[in-house]
Design brief:
The protein is elongated. The chain has helices at 12-21, 25-37, 44-52, 62-69, 76-85, 89-102, 108-114, 124-129, 136-146, 154-162, 166-176, 184-192, 196-208, 211-221, 229-237, 244-254. The chain is 62% helix and 0% strand.
Length: 258
């Protein structure tokens, strides 16, 4: 029985045989999941054939996983067509992530079109894609979705910061002056922004040494991509006055870096 079960240990050729002989769609999907999970590169041509034969409609999750995990960029157009035609929320979300895995900076126009099918909550992965492929058009699309509600839609706010948007930094400066439980969002915004004024603001926070502000800044650096992220973290680590909570977060973020 074991030899008839699709597993990640099996070769791509064996998984194709099991797929072809499977008695139903559910069993076929298991073979596809095994192919994706095992990253069977040699299955590429077979998976491309399935996609071009229109099988994404039949296997919207498992086949999309194969395409993205095997990085089959030749299937990008078919994945885009499937995404724009998707009706189910789960199907749309899964195919969105798979499509974004295949897109490069050269596909900016296609990725911008994805915003048209998404609301402000659904657009988060697209906004995050643009944090490493920033464009003025993407910044404007995100602003349109956020509608000035930076605190409410903070995921897109931080993405805007990472894209180098000026307006969101200006908003964060004003927020940092207020007595509000959401002040942490201001420091996260500084931590994600590559703008020179954000660097000045970060150095000001470090110089002032307010513990809660430093903690929020350090937490913001956790998934920040700014070039001086590590420099700032080490500067904070060298401060003579650090609360136990600040020490904890510094250790948590710096330890994996070494």
């Amino acid at each position: 029985a074991h030899f008839k079960q699709p597993t990640t240990d099996k070769s791509a050729a064996d998984l194709k045989v099991l797929f072809d002989k499977a008695p139903d769609a559910e069993s076929k999907a298991v073979a596809l999941w095994a192919c994706a999970g095992g990253k069977k590169k040699e299955a590429g041509s077979w998976i491309v054939e399935l996609v071009r034969a229109g099988k994404l409609a039949e296997f919207p999750h498992s086949l999309a996983a194969c395409v993205s995990d095997l990085r089959l960029v030749e299937c990008r157009d078919e994945m885009a067509k499937a995404f724009f035609g998707a009706t189910g929320e789960s199907e749309k979300r899964f195919q969105l992530y798979s499509l974004l895995e295949l897109c490069t900076k050269a596909d900016e126009k296609l990725v911008l079109r994805l915003f048209d099918k998404l609301d402000v909550e659904e657009a988060r992965p697209v906004a995050e894609w643009f944090t490493t492929n920033a464009s003025p058009a993407a910044i404007e699309r995100c602003h349109r979705l956020v509608g000035g509600k930076f605190e409410e839609h903070w995921h897109l706010t931080f993405a805007l910061a990472a894209m180098g948007d000026e307006r969101v930094v200006e908003w964060a400066v004003e927020l940092s002056k207020k007595a509000t439980e959401n002040k942490w969002m201001a420091y996260y915004t500084f931590a994600h922004s590559p703008r020179p004024e954000a660097e000045t603001l970060i150095r000001g926070v470090i110089r002032q040494g307010t513990q809660e502000a430093l903690i929020s800044l350090v937490q913001g650096f956790d998934d920040s991509r700014i070039p001086k992220r590590l420099t700032f973290l080490r500067e904070i680590a060298r401060l003579p006055k650090k609360s136990p909570k600040l020490v904890y977060w510094l250790h948590r973020i710096l330890e994996p870096i070494g």
